[in-house]
Automatic annotation (TrEMBL), chain A:
InterPro entries tied to this protein: 2-oxoacid:Fd_oxidoreductase, OFOB, THDP-binding, TPP_enzyme_TPP-bd
Ranges of residues in domain Thiamine pyrophosphate enzyme TPP-binding: 61-207
Key word Oxidoreductase present: yes
Pfam families recorded: TPP_enzyme_C
Region (Disordered): 140-163
Full protein name: Thiamine pyrophosphate-dependent enzyme
Keywords from the named record: Oxidoreductase
TrEMBL record, chain B:
Residue intervals of the Pyruvate/ketoisovalerate oxidoreductase catalytic domain: 15-198
Record bears the keyword Oxidoreductase: yes
Record-given protein name: 2-oxoglutarate synthase subunit KorA
CDD domains: TPP_PYR_PFOR_IOR-alpha_like
Organism, as annotated: Salarchaeum japonicum
């Protein structure tokens, strides 16, 4: 028997298996977009047949960080901005785990921005969901890296002087091999994208638009959106970096001007994930590292001699 | 004095091969049967500038660099001003000769490269030579090296000249060279070596002085390792297969040694974007079931404060190394200090706890790093190994058999799936990962992917099942349990009966030290006792949980004690006082913070001032701080 028998079960999974039986009701506000992420994630996991115990969900701090209180799997609620380094190391340690990281726009693009850039460029085989509601929610409505210029808050009383981060362009430029945007107001597309993201062999960045009814009533997530893959007006090749880049610019310009476009923007197939690249270069073992501690027959290189070089 | 030990200093510019040359020569001396100890001094720059390495070799055990030295090989700095060929870097002074004369012992030997250095540049050189009875060999080492190969081989020429002057068998050096290189390079180096050797023998009277190589014999095979090697190999042998880091001197030593070995042992090394990520990766890998480690030096460790606290709260095993250098801020990157002690003990928010080990030599580095992993994985707590730039780069000979090279795959208090099935689950079937009630504070853990063991690890306060909770009873229970671990660990550590008191058991005066200064202090104890004083020393290598009983026993047995540390504010003395709550009136301090570690003579001087109740000032590079009271 494997030391990790929850992994690789080929069985029907009901999305309710991800609902903790005894959890309190979510403390998210009524109408919060985070409910949409939770629903889409559970649905996607069930569709992929993932056993809750083979999933590791790492979150940061903020409203988004509460996700794994309401999603029953192995979970690691880390610290502000640090879900990615924890998550990617877990994937390196046990490459058989299904690893998903989640954070908010402040968490993911602000305090954790550096980790985002580097995790994307390394192309770790994992999915990163950023709850983007253009505001700090849990700390009560301050301006975030995705808040539009002019956004007024208690910390920017005269209006935000900074231009917002362009998450999709940033993800692509940093090296993410799958970049998509979806929205809580469209659970069907959201689920579909999360399924794709998790199936994708490499770093999947999903900018997930989530409305914040309490602190950011102006956010454009409330307006009707257009699914770029379903619309003839936005025909482009998602595997072409330049075309994807152009579409992202269009979308990111438009986001603050009235139109919300969602869908897959960039899908790079055939590039080695970080794990594959490391294995290819001989700097990562084939067997998941975590297995060997439970494996009585594991070779522990007892004959390895570091002493000779010092004689 | 000069016959029983050789202290050979090779000086030159950074990038001129001083380090590799000295390591090879140290190894040759070790192979000839001697005990060796190296001390490295270098500037924070890549090429040029004054650098030196000292090798102390003796038949006796050597535990410090000693006082001064008796053989100087001055190679000249090829990247500084070159008196013969004009300027490389402006008007920078050529220091390998001028900077190194103050500590050269009377009757000592100077070999200098007359191809690069000119004694006319040194003030009162001839007078000083005569006054100190130095024996000077002016050799055109550069010319000699050029003749057979390349100028860079002047190191080899210097070693050949050294061997002729001290009567050292060339075979040991030639063997090492043959191990390290081959073909034309080897031939050229051997030619340079032999030519220099013969030139000296033919043209100079090598018996005109008393400096010669001592003779010794080892009972078993020895290896030459540094403190950083001790830590790296301790980690490896304890089953560490994941290291993440960001380069920073002097931590980089451990990081690169392990990075180079990891592919060979099926492990993973990650150089990442910053130190927050480095420590967070180690937490993530550990959470997923791998023995993982990270580390840094002061400034980088500052960034690790967050993941350190997270590891404690989520009870994720973690080993962090902190290799101290002089601060504050980036301070002096290549100079040792012991002033990160409080930083390491107290960093991170809340009532956070960690185990802190402070090894004093390469063997202890190895042993304590192994212990660090055992405790971290058994007690699910962050364990730190704190040492400094001095110990990091110091090489000593250790019996090869000391390293057992038997990896330990045990994950301590981690459950298998069968054990999880038997473990406590709540009424809803959820595994109680953070159970309140275990006696030693440890609630056994599960690993993602294991059937029946899923839980939420969170840096927020949480219930036994891992749910975030602000319930007052739960809070008290969890805090008390985590605190209980420290007491259990102390009890565990106390079971190892270690001999930490050194010197005259009945002595009334004590010296107290920690970490890398221990060997120097113990050498000072020997000298003080030879000088007719009665002194003993205590070295403390467990900083938290603090070995209070052992320290009390020692301090109760003396009437006063001098605490020796490389810090400006007597942090270590403060730690002793805080942990014991007393002894303030009998603890004075000897402090040094000029970037160089103590030499035995400085400690002898200060101890004599204290014991004799004199009011003398100690040497200008140290400071005596009187007892501060409780």
């Amino acid at each position: 028997m494997s030391a990790f028998s929850a992994i690789g079960n080929d069985r029907e999974v009901d999305q309710n298996e991800f609902t903790p039986g005894i959890e309190p009701q979510p403390t998210w506000c009524p109408g919060c977009g985070d409910y949409g992420v939770l629903k889409a994630l559970k649905g996607a996991m069930a569709e992929l047949g993932k056993d809750p115990e083979e999933v590791l969900l790492c979150t940061g701090i903020g409203c988004s960080g509460k996700l794994n209180s309401y999603f029953d799997s192995y979970g690691f609620h880390t610290i502000h901005g640090r879900s990615l380094p924890v998550a990617r190391a877990a994937k390196l340690a046990n490459s058989d785990l299904e690893v998903v990281a989640a954070g908010g726009d402040g968490d993911g693009y602000g305090i954790g921005g550096n980790h985002f850039m580097h995790t994307a460029r390394e192309n770790h085989d994992m999915t990163y969901i950023v709850f983007n509601n253009e505001v700090f929610g849990l700390t009560k409505g301050q301006t975030s890296p995705t808040s539009p210029q002019g956004h007024k808050s208690k910390t920017q009383p005269e209006g935000n002087a900074k231009a917002p981060i362009r998450p999709l362009s940033l993800g692509l430029t940093s090296g993410a091999s799958y970049v998509a945007r979806t929205a809580a107001v469209n659970p069907n597309q959201a689920k579909e994208i999360l399924v794709e993201a998790m199936e994708h062999d490499g770093f999947s960045h999903v900018d997930f638009l989530t409305q914040c009814p309490t602190w950011n009533k102006d956010a454009k997530q409330y307006v009707p959106y257009v699914d770029i893959q379903d619309s003839d007006d936005y025909d482009f090749d998602v595997s072409d970096r330049r075309e994807a880049q152009e579409m992202m610019h269009e979308t990111e310009d438009a986001l603050y001007e009235g139109t919300v476009l969602t869908g897959r923007y960039y899908v790079e197939e055939g590039r080695r994930s970080y794990q594959q690249e490391k294995r290819h270069r001989g700097s990562m073992p084939e067997q998941p590292l975590a297995e060997r501690y439970f494996d009585d027959s594991a070779e522990w290189e007892r004959s390895f001699d570091y002493i000779d070089r010092h004689k | 004095m000069t016959n029983d030990e050789l202290i050979w200093r090779i000086a030159g510019g950074s990038g001129d091969g001083i380090d590799s040359t000295s390591q090879n020569f140290a190894k040759a001396l070790m192979r000839s049967g001697l005990n060796v100890f190296t001390h490295r001094h270098y500037p924070s720059r890549i090429r040029g500038g004054h650098t030196y390495v000292e090798i102390r070799a003796s038949e006796e055990n050597v535990r410090s660099r000693g006082d001064g030295y008796n053989f100087l090989l001055s190679l000249g700095d090829s990247f500084a001003r070159n008196p013969k060929e004009g300027a490389y870097y402006g008007e920078e002074e050529v220091k390998p000769l001028s900077e190194n004369l103050d500590e050269l012992r009377e009757g000592g030997v100077i070999v200098y490269d007359s191809g690069l250095l000119d004694t006319d540049d040194i003030e009162n050189f001839d007078e000083r030579v005569e006054e100190n009875d130095w024996h000077v060999y002016d050799l055109d080492l550069r010319g000699l090296a050029k003749e057979h190969g390349r100028e860079i081989m002047r190191n080899t020429a210097g070693v050949g000249a050294t061997a002729a002057i001290i009567g050292f068998d060339l075979d040991y050096i030639e063997e090492l060279m043959a191990d390290a290189m081959g073909g034309d390079i080897l031939d050229a180096n051997l030619d340079v070596l032999r030519d220099a050797y013969e030139t000296v023998q033919e043209e100079y009277d090598v018996d005109a002085h008393d400096v010669s190589v001592p003779e010794g014999e080892h009972e078993e095979e020895q290896v030459l390792v540094s403190g950083s090697h001790g830590i790296a190999y301790g980690a490896l042998d304890e089953g560490c297969r994941f290291i993440s880091g960001y380069p920073m001197t002097p931590w980089t030593d451990v990081f690169t040694i392990l990075t180079q070995l990891m592919p060979d042992v099926g492990g993973i090394s990650e150089q990442v974007e910053d130190e927050i990520a480095a420590a967070a990766l180690a937490v993530g890998a550990s959470h997923a079931g791998v023995k993982a480690m990270s580390g840094s030096s002061g400034g980088g460790f500052a960034l690790m404060s967050e993941p350190l606290g997270l590891a404690e709260m989520t009870e994720t095993p973690l080993v962090l190394v902190e290799s101290m250098r002089a601060g504050p801020s980036t301070g002096m990157p290549t100079k040792p200090e012991q002033a990160d002690l409080e930083h390491v003990l107290y960093t991170s928010q809340g009532d956070s706890h960690r185990v802190v080990f402070a090894p004093s030599d390469p063997e202890e580095c190895y042993e304590q790093t192994r212990k660090a992993f055992q405790i971290a994985w058994e007690y699910q707590i962050p364990v730190m190994v704190i040492y400094d730039q001095k110990l990091s780069g110091e090489y000593r000979n250790v019996p090869a058999s000391f390293f057992d090279q038997e990896p330990n795959p045990s994950l301590g208090s981690t459950l298998t799936e069968d054990e999880i099935a038997e473990a406590a689950h709540d009424e809803f079937g959820k595994f109680e990962r953070f159970r309140h009630d275990p006696e030693n504070g440890v609630s056994p853990r599960s690993i993602p992917g294991q059937k029946g063991g899923h839980f939420l690890a969170t840096g927020n306060e949480h219930t036994p099942e891992g749910h975030i909770s602000e319930d007052p009873d739960n809070r008290v229970n969890q805090m008390n349990r985590r605190l209980r671990k420290m007491r259990s660990i102390r009890a565990d550590l106390d079971e190892d009966e270690r001999q930490d008191v050194y010197g005259d058991e009945s002595a009334d005066f004590g010296l107290v030290s920690w970490g890398s200064q221990t060997g120097t202090v113990e050498e000072a104890v020997d000298r003080l006792n030879e000088n007719g004083y009665s002194v003993k020393a205590l070295s403390i290598s467990e900083m938290a949980p603090f070995p209070e009983r052992k320290v009390r026993d020692f301090l109760d047995s003396v009437s006063e004690a001098l605490v020796v540390e490389m810090s400006t504010t007597a942090q270590f003395r403060g730690h002793i006082q805080k942990e014991t709550g007393s002894y303030g009136e009998m603890l004075s301090s000897l402090l040094k913070y000029n970037g160089n570690p103590f030499e035995p003579a400085e400690i002898v001087e200060a101890a004599e001032i204290e014991i004799d109740d004199r009011l003398d000032e100690p040497s200008s590079q140290t400071r005596l701080e009187p007892a501060a009271g409780d």
